[in-house]
Every structure is written in C-alpha cells, then in structure tokens.
Amino acid sequence: MNEAKLRFWFYVAGILTAIFLAVHLSMLFITPLNFVERTSTTTVDYYLRNYFYDTALSLLLIFAFIHATLGVRRTLHDYGIKNTKGVVITMFAILFILLYFLFTSFV
To answer: Which of 11, 12, 104 is nearest to 58 (CA)?
Structure first.
C-alpha cells in the first residue's frame, strides 16, 4: 500500500477514535456518580450490559490501535527503518489477542 493510502487510513482511524472517545467520555460523565461509585463492579457490569456502549468501547479499542500502529509505523519509517511489516503484524496480533480477551471475559 502506498503512503497516501496509509495516511488516509491514519486520518480516518484518528477521526473515528475521536468520535468513539467522545461517546465513551459522555457515557462516563453523564451520570452524577463519584469516582468510587463509577468504578464499582456493579456499575461497570451495568454499563457493559448495554450493547451499544460495549460495541462503542470495542470500536474505540480497534480504531485507537489502528491509529497508533500506523503512527508507530510512520515514525519507524521516518527514522530510516524501511522494513516495518513485522512491527505492524506484531501489533495487529496484539490487537486480536486484546479483542479475544475483551469478548470472552463478558459472557
């Protein structure tokens, strides 16, 4: 893939990350709970049963990770490391492992 397409996907992932981060923060601060109540097990379980919020968190993880991976790739490329394919493959493997744990821990 050429640099223009990668830059386009970097920008798209950044914009989508910002959108889902806004959803996440609005869900956190829309309730008048303090930090201890907001992070209690019952409150977290309640919010994670909301499939819209659970999907938004998953998409936030995916888009933020894609954005970060492309940023790390570009940084390595700028420092003269041309073969960054292994780094990108490793980071996407980590993403799939994180998604596996995310989707299997809330059943």
So the answer is: 104
